[in-house]
Design brief:
Length: 270
C-alpha cells in the first residue's frame, strides 16, 4: 500500500518470480484481459491475473478480498515500470554490470540476487536479451521490487534507446516446409503476392479486432495461417513479424507468441 501511495503500480509475484496467477475464470487469458492492455490496472475480472497489466495503485483493489488471497500466496512484489514512468535495465550477471558501469550514465541502482537493476526516468518499449545478460523492462513488462536503491535517477540514456531500437521483438525463425508440387502441375497459388498479402492482412485484422479471448484468438489465427501458407515455403520472416506485432499490440508477450506459433506448427505436424 505504501508503494501504491507512492504512485508505483504493484502486483503479487510467486516463488518463481512470475505474476500470480491466472484465476480459474481467466486461465490462459480466455477472458481477453483488459480492453486496452497498454494501460496498467486490474482486468475486468476481480483477480490480478494478467501479469503486468494487473499492476495497480488503486487502494480499493489492493485491499479487496480477491487480491488479499493473492498477496497471501505471494513471495515477492512486482511492479510495472512503464506505469511508474521508469525504465529498468536488468543486469543479470557480473559481466553485464561491468558493461553498464563502462557504458551507461550513473543512476539509481538496486542490487539483485545475480546482478543489479539500473533504473532510469522515462519509458521505452521492453525488450529482453538486448545483449548477453541485459533485459530492458519498461512498457508492457514487470520487474521485482527490491527496494528504493541508491543514487540519483537519470533520464533514459541514448545508449538504452539505441539497444531497444536495434533489437527486434523476439520471434521464431521461419521454418518453411516444402510440399510436393500441387497435383496436376502448375504454380502454387500461394506464390501470388496478392493471395498471400490478403491472407496475412486478414490474419492481422482478426487478431486486432479480438475483444475477448485474445490468447486463444492468436493461437487459432496462427494455426489458420500455417495451415493455408505454411507448407509451400511462401511465409517469410516479415510475414511472421507482422503477425507477432499484431499479437503484441493486443498485450501478448513475445514468449506467448513464440509458444503459440510453435504449438500451431506441432498441431499441424510441421
Amino acid at each position: 500500500m505504501a508503494l501504491a501511495d507512492g504512485h508505483l503500480p504493484v502486483l503479487p509475484l510467486g516463488a518463481d518470480k512470475r505474476p500470480l496467477g491466472n484465476c480459474p475464470a481467466c486461465a490462459d487469458l480466455v477472458c481477453g484481459g483488459r480492453p486496452n492492455m497498454k494501460t496498467p490496472g486490474p482486468c475486468l475480472c476481480p483477480w490480478p491475473c494478467h501479469g503486468w497489466a494487473a499492476a495497480t495503485t488503486n487502494p480499493s483493489v489492493l485491499a479487496s478480498r480477491q487480491w488479499g488471497l493473492a498477496w497471501r500466496r505471494a513471495r515477492a512484489i512486482g511492479y510495472h515500470p512503464g506505469g511508474a514512468g521508469v525504465t529498468v535495465v536488468d543486469l543479470d550477471n557480473a559481466d553485464a554490470v561491468e558493461w553498464a558501469r563502462t557504458t551507461l550514465p550513473p543512476t539509481t541502482t538496486v542490487e539483485t540476487t545475480r546482478g543489479e537493476h539500473w533504473i532510469y526516468s522515462g519509458t521505452v518499449r521492453s525488450v529482453n536479451k538486448v545483449r548477453e545478460g541485459v533485459d530492458i523492462k519498461s512498457l508492457m513488462s514487470y520487474a521485482r521490487w527490491l527496494g528504493p536503491g541508491s543514487g540519483t535517477m537519470a533520464d533514459v540514456p541514448d545508449a538504452v534507446h539505441a539497444l531497444v531500437e536495434e533489437k527486434p521483438a523476439v520471434r521464431p525463425a521461419a521454418r518453411a516446409v516444402i510440399a510436393p508440387t500441387p497435383a496436376g502441375g502448375g504454380r502454387c497459388p500461394h506464390r501470388s503476392p496478392v493471395y498471400l498479402e490478403r491472407g496475412i492482412a486478414m490474419a492481422e485484422q482478426q487478431i486486432t479486432s479480438a475483444d475477448s479471448g485474445v490468447h486463444n484468438t492468436v493461437y487459432r489465427t496462427f494455426l489458420a495461417v500455417l495451415s493455408a501458407h505454411g507448407r509451400c515455403g511462401c511465409l517469410t520472416e516479415t510475414h511472421i513479424g507482422r503477425l507477432f506485432a499484431a499479437a503484441q499490440a493486443k498485450g501478448e508477450s513475445a514468449r506467448h507468441c513464440t509458444t503459440a506459433w510453435s504449438n500451431a506448427n506441432a498441431a499441424l505436424g510441421m
